[in-house]
Write a structure and sequence with these properties.
Elements: H1 2-7, E1 11-15, H2 22-29, E2 34-39, E3 52-54, E4 68-74, H3 83-93, E5 94-105, H4 110-115, H5 131-140, E6 143-151, H6 162-171, E7 179-186, H7 191-196
Parallel strand pairs: 1-2, 1-4, 2-3, 4-5
Antiparallel strand pairs: 5-7, 6-7
Amino acid sequence: MDLISKEIDGVVLDVGCCSGPLHKLLKSLRPDCRIYGIDAKIKDAYKGEKGIVQGDAQNMKMFPPGKFDTVVAGEIIEHLPFPEKFVAEASRVLKSGGKLILTTNNKGALINRLLHNYEAESTTHVHVFARKELFDLLERNGFRIEKTVMLPYVSSRMAVTDPFRIILHYVLPDSLRENFFILAVKTRERFHDTEKS
């Protein structure tokens, strides 16, 4: 949350805005930004709040091209059935030079390799990416990777394991750490959009 709040600029779209405390935190930390939100389901706490719309992150037709300076997707892409459609939509609604900030799990993390965490049918993560897969997806859609930070996964639901995971995080190489924070900048339109013109 701290990393995200420091990187957003201008007119911001928070994708999956109702799924956690990030949206309200960004609004309180960055009153200089105009922050909108989109979510598949609007929770009661957000109903009637200005700038929040119900919709699909993979088809954000309610927003015109180039509306936003920053798109934030915190722990969202791994839950989407069609992540490529989301990244294409993020590119479409961003201005040239706009930022896409996303956080997501690292498929190559040591804990995921050992426990095969994302092979269980019960998981809500339908697409988990290794570094190259994620970077390729972003680059195909006209983004340049500006910054990558690897973060430990911590959760109040797993407070017993959190200290161990944090210690392990700092001794492992980046490729085996748990979560990506990626800042990507839109440098061009998507390949096939350019080919059509």
